[in-house]
């Protein structure tokens, strides 16, 4: 990292950053745990997408359910890194990135809940 990068220890000393990081991490972790515990390897196709208008409109292999949790992990990492790198320049944008991270994880957890309830 460059000489203008905010030290990670100081970034987490700002209590709000630490709380939002832990909250987003725990939501993403619960998303992974829920998928791993509820969706088992199987030969049958499972429901992968539900639409209010048409019901289930996409089915596929069981392992594709993990894309929701993987998307959450990618969003978590990108938002954390952007929030950390921008903290020195604009604290508001950094906090906004952390808030977006939590909101995205919540929506992905809801999507996982729907997928699990459709397939269990």
Polypeptide structure, described:
There is one protein chain. By secondary structure, the protein is mainly alpha-helical. The protein has one domain. Helix content is 67%, strand content 10%. It has four helices and two strands, in the order ααββαα. Strands 1-2 form a two-stranded antiparallel sheet. Helix 2 runs antiparallel to helix 3 and helix 2 packs parallel to helix 4. Keywords: Membrane, Transmembrane, Transmembrane helix. The chain crosses the membrane at residues 16-37, 66-87, 99-118.
Tally of individual domains: 1
How far apart the termini lie comes to: 45 Å
Unreliable stretches covering 5 or more consecutive residues: none
User: Largest beta sheet: what is the strand line-up?
Assistant: 1-2
Structural class call reads mainly alpha
Helix proportion range: 55-70%
Largest sheet: 2 strands, antiparallel
Radius of gyration: 17 Å
Strand/helix succession: HHEEHH
* Beta-strand residue fraction: 5-15%
Number of helices: 4
Can you tell me the overall shape? elongated
Average pLDDT level: 93
The tally of beta strands, per DSSP, is: 2
Keywords: Membrane, Transmembrane, Transmembrane helix
Transmembrane segments: 16-37, 66-87, 99-118
